[in-house]
Amino acid sequence: MKINWSKYTDFQTRVFKTILKIPKGRVLTYAEVARRIGKPRAARAVGQALSKNMDAPFIPCHRVVASNGLGGYSAQGGLKSKIKLLRKEGYL
Domain 5-88, what fold? Predict the structure, then answer.
């Protein structure tokens, strides 16, 4: 699938391109994504960016979790879908 990056902000694009590199069966925390994009204090902003993902699951925002649990999931099906996807990929 070709992603139309013009519909996203520069920050969102940086976040999404980072999470596209997360292999199946692996996760990063919101804070780890923030550090990888050079914004170590932007974990909440990463979560906000992920909530705007119009290309889930092609942009696999389900692979980003909270440091103390799974965090949220704003794509169709909510947290149940996130759990299902992570199980399918062998993380859970």
Answer: Arc Repressor Mutant, subunit A (1.10.10)
User: Which residues belong to the active site?
Assistant: 61
* Cβ–Cβ under 8 Å, residues 60 and 22: yes
- DSSP assignment of 38-78 equals T-TT-HHHHHHHHHT-SSTTTS-GGGEEBTTB-----STTH
In the chain, DSSP assigns E strands to 28-29, 64-65
Tell me the pLDDT tens digit for each residue of 43-69.
999 999 999 999 988 999 999 999 999
Question: Cα–chain-centroid distance for residue 25?
Answer: 13
Residue 74 pLDDT > 90, yes or no? no
The Cα–Cα gap between 74 and 81 comes to 9
Q: Is the peptide bond before 57 cis (omega within 30 degrees of 0)?
A: yes
Query: What does the DSSP 8-state code read for residue 35?
Result: H
Q: Report the SS3 class of residue 26.
A: coil
